[in-house]
Structure formats: C-alpha cells, structure tokens
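Ticket 4471: requesting a sanity check on a complex prediction with calcium ion. Repro inputs:
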Amino acid sequence: MVFGTGTRPSWVGMADNYQTEISVREFLPEIKAAQATAIMAAVKSSIYFNLCISASAVLIAVVVNGPSASMFVWLAIAHTILALRLSFQRGMDARFVAAGRADTALRVLSYGSFASGMAWAALPFFIMDFNGGGKDAFLLLIMVGIAAGGVIRHIAYSPVALTFAMPPMMSIVLTLAVEGSSASTILALNVVGLLVVLYKSSVAGEATFANNELGKLRATRLANSLREANADIMQKNARLEVLANCDPLTGLSNRALFSSRLREHIASADAFGQEVALLIIDLDRFKSINDTLGHSAGDSVLVQTSARLRAVIGSKGEIARLGGDEFAIIVTGTDAARTARLAARDILKKAKAPLTVGGGAFVIGTSIGLAAFPQHAETAEELLACADMALYEAKERGRRRLQEFNPRLKSQADRQRQIELDLEEAIRTGSVEAWFQPQVLLNNREIVGFEALVRWTHPRLGYITPPEIVQAAQVMHITDKLTAHIAAAACRLLNRLPELGLPEATVAINVSPREFSFYSLADVLGLVTKQHGINPALLEIEITEEAIIDTSIVGNELKRLEEAGYKLAVDDFGMGHSSLAYLISLKIDRLKIDRSFVEGVANSRHNQALIAALIGIGHTLQIDIVVEGVEHEEDVEVLRVLGCRIGQGYLYARPMSPDKLDGWIDAHRQTITARAVA
Ligand code: C2E
Ligand code: CA
Ligand code: CA
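Returned structure tokens:
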C-alpha cells in the first residue's frame, strides 16, 4: 500500500484505459490535493463518530461483562488517539496543508487512521474472557461495522481507509480463529471474505474518485485553454484591425480607413446640411529623395511631414496617408471649405522650412488640391477625384501651391480620360502619326536630318498636343507601342531618304524619361530597326535632360542603346540638371539647346552668354550642338558666330506629314541654289 508519496498510485490505469499514464502524472499533484481535501472533510466527522461508537462499545461491554478498569484504559487510549488526530487535523487545516502539501497531509491522515484502526484491533484484548462467538459478538459486530464504515467514508484515498479498516478486521479473524469452534471458524472465514471485498472496494473506489477528479481537471484545463485561446484571438483581431486601418510608418489612418471615414462624413454632412472639405497633399520630388538618399531618408521625410500636418490640423480634421508621398485631410463642419483653405495655406507656409534628412537640410515642396462637398461633388469617390484633379493642376502650374477644384478641371480631366480611352485604337489604325521637322546646317541650309514629332487629330476633341498623347500613353501603359509606332515611321522615312538624295541624313525620335522604367527601349528599337533593315547609326534618340539623372535603370538602358550604335541626343539642354559626369560617361552625340535660349538671341546679351556657355560644354566634351526653335534670320548669324552648326525651327520648316516631305525637299533645294547663286 502506498502511503501517498510520489510513487505511482495504485489506481493509475484502472477503470480508464485511454488515460495514458503520462497525462495522469501531469495531473497527479492536483488529484492528490483533491484526495487530501476530500479525506480531511470526511475524517473530521469520522473522528466524532468514532468517539461516540467507542464510548457506546465500552458502555455495552460494561453492561454485558460488568465494569473493568481495562476497558476504561482502552477507551482512554482510543479517545486520546482521536483527540490527537483532531488537533493534527486542525493544524493542517489552518496551514492549508491539503492543498499545498497533499502528500504530507495524506501521510499524516494515514498514520492517524492506522492508529485508530490499531486501537479498535486491540479492543478484544482489553476484555476479560473475550468470547467473540458468544457474549461479545456485539463487539465484533461493532468492529466490522466501523471498519466497513471507514472504507466507505474514506473512498477518496484507499491507504487511509485500509489502514483504519484492516487492523480491526484482522483482529476479528484472529480472535475467532483462536476460539477454535467450528462456528467461529466459519465466521472467521466469512470475515476474511469480507476483508477481501473491503480491500477491493477501497482500491476501486479510489480509482473511481481519482478518475472523476482527472476528468474534472481536464475539463477545467480545456475550458481555461479555450478561454486563453479566445483572449489571444481577440487580441490578435484587435492588432489586425489596427494594422488594417493604420499606416505603420506614420501612425496615420491608411487609405482603407480614410475611404470609409470620408463616406461616413459625407453621409452625415448630407443629413445635417454641412460641408466636407478634402485636401490632398503631395510632396514634390519625393521620389528623387528616395532614389538618391535611400529609403530611410524617404521614410524620415514622411514621418516629419506627418508630424507637421498633425501640428497644423490638430483637432480640426482627420489626416491619412493614402500611400507613397500622398496625404489626405478631411475637414468637416458648417465652414469646412474655409477652414481647409486656411489650413492648406498654413501647411504651405510651414513647408518652406527645411527638413533634416540624412544629416542635411532639405526644403520639400508641397502641392495641395482642395475640393468640397456639396459644392464640387456628390459622393466620396467624386470628391476624391475632384481633389485629385485640383492637385494635378497645382503640380502642372508649377507646384508648391494650393489649387482649388473648379469645373474647368473636370472637363480637362474628362478630355484626358477620353484621350486615354481612344489612344491605343488610334495608334493601331494610324490616326496617330509621325510628322517630321527638318534640321539644316546653319551656314548653307543643307538638310542633315529630321525630327519625328507625334501628331493626332481626334475626331471629336480635335488637335491633341504631344504632351497629352505621351501622358495618356503612360497612364495606359502603352508607351512602348507609341514609341514603336513613331520609330517605325522614322524607319520608313530613313528608307526613302536615299531616293530623295539624302543618304546620310538622320531621323530623330523623342523618348520621354519615364518610359525607361516600363519597358526596354533597346529591345523595342532592336525589333523595329531589324524589321525595316535600318542602320542604327542613322536613328537618333532624343532624351530630355531629366532622364540623364543617374538611376541604374536609365544607366543600363542608355548603355545598351549606345552599344547598339544609335545616336544619342540630349533634348532641351540647359533646362534641367543633367549631371556632367553622366554626359561624360555616355557617348552622347548631340546636345539640343532649348528653344527658350534661342528666342531673340540676336538682341539678348544674356541668352548669348548662356548659349556660349552651353556650347563651351559641348565643345569640351566633343559633342555636336543643335539649336531648336530658330525662327528669325537675324538669330542665325549670331548662333553661327557662337559656334552652333545645326539648326531646326519654323524659319526653315514646320513639322510636316511624310507625304508633304518630298515636295518640301524639292522646293528647299531650289531655294538653296537660288541663294547660292545670289
Ligand atoms: P521637343 O522635343 O522639344 O520638340 C520640339 C517642339 O518645338 C515641337 O513641338 C515642335 O513643333 C516645336 N518647334 C519646332 N520649331 C519651332 C519653332 O521655331 N518655334 C516654336 N515655337 N516651336 C517650334 P511639338 O511637336 O508640339 O512637341 C512638343 C514636345 O512633345 C516635344 O518637344 C517633345 O518633347 C514631345 N514629343 C513630341 N513627339 C513625341 C513623341 O513621339 N514621343 C515623345 N516621347 N515625346 C514627343
Ligand atoms: Ca525633341
Ligand atoms: Ca526640345
């Protein structure tokens, strides 16, 4: 029998096969505590019951046998043991031993019940001429009863039950066996049978108790873990909600939350007759900061900008980051448009102060578009589109400004949208075509080349400007198609030029800087020139200066074009900020000096100085110079003196459709001859 130490309890595995021993061991301390608590509760009443029974046993014995000192000695011993057990019990109760040190409690309880059991076992020996089969049978009855009662009361833990029940039962067997009569022998055998039954019931009873307890503990643990899992899920959900609605970098609302808030505000403004104003804010040239100073510098700009916006807006509106460098502010109330206008001016004023980025100080220009409900739009989507149009206009008009929406912007946007929708089909059917403007030597007007310029007359919208076409192609991601279409026209002209007596003339096409990131120009041109059997050295690619800023994509693509043998020209030279290092590292063939420097050059010392400087750069780098926008004869002489060789402009010819070229070339030859003769 186990006296409640850490060894394997007898009940493990009984009555419940599927409970593995390992999982039982996990719960053993709690089961022991439950056993100790149950036994403590049962033992107390057992002790009182024992006090009464032992007293009445002695009383009956006195009646049957007459008084004797030994019986009172027994009673005194039995009661002392019970009293000691009671006081131990109290002590353990006070110290919560059952819960904290269940093993100890069970051991003490077992010792106590053993002591009482032994006292009951000793009772027959304290009675003179004990006769279990005769006059003292009642005592045996009481002892059997108390033993059986002990087993039932202490079903939770068999050692307590058995240490109490076994000694009196064995004592009964012993006294009956000693008597030797056949009746007492039969009785003794019966009691042995009873003893076995009691033993088995006690062990089985403990197993049932422990298994019940195990079931309860498992259920509780399951409930607890479900509760914890639930709490965990709730917490994760809350975090996901924050993530779903919040921009992690700036802590501002993101686009998703912004859209739903805007819709809510418009619904309530509609109901209460109020206004909703929307500001869309965009940082100028944020992309180049990101590209040149790195993403952490870009992040820092965004964080500092959001702090500035918060400082200006405070509780007057809700700020969101829509993505990239685009922010939005929703302002509500009866006077929302006015409040938003004032806030926007404040933002523009604050934006003039530099931000610290990557150890340096930078002024980041800010453009703002403003639109209001119900003045400009009826729905959230419309309001956002209007504010976007206003922002676009602010950027078009030179950035660093606030632009309010007006209906003209809407019709402009509608026009752009229509252009976007129809462009691809127009390229396919040939409505979009290339016109050509000649380039001539300034000294004798001899034709040396042509520039291809895109032309499209829309059936409904009329003349569409080249920048509108290029912009639409970018929006629709068909810049490769547009460029291939113009390049093909350039190749067709190149193939005709020898017949026209101009075997060495070049044809230039324009490529917008942003195209490089969408497709490989070298691949597209490779295909087109191969199809037409063109020598790449006769095809010139004009790239606006902006494209020469060094990004790896542009760099790679330019290198490939150069290696393929195309002529490269830098367009609008002097306007932007091409890095000299780049001009040197690339084999640029031509610099095209922008029209704005050429205008009125004969009478402008300033423009003359500028052109002289630009030509100086060209000569040093051994790059040919072309001047654009030559309109007046008087400027030609000055340009020649300054060192320009080739010119292009209305003075010589406007861009013309390919079918007009033959006639013009003939007429031009006659003019040259006439001039030479004169
Ligand atoms: P750009 O490359 O600077 O082209 C020269 C522009 O100046 C042309 O305008 C041309 O018509 C105009 N021009 C030429 N000579 C004179 C002159 O003497 N006086 C004045 N006032 N203007 C003159 P256009 O055709 O409207 O093109 C505008 C811009 O659109 C071009 O500027 C070019 O950057 C772009 N572009 C034109 N065609 C294409 C194209 O096929 N692809 C791309 N990506 N861009 C193109
Ligand atoms: Ca050009
Ligand atoms: Ca130009």
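Notes from triage: The two ends are 137 Å apart (CA to CA). Leaving this open until the requester confirms.
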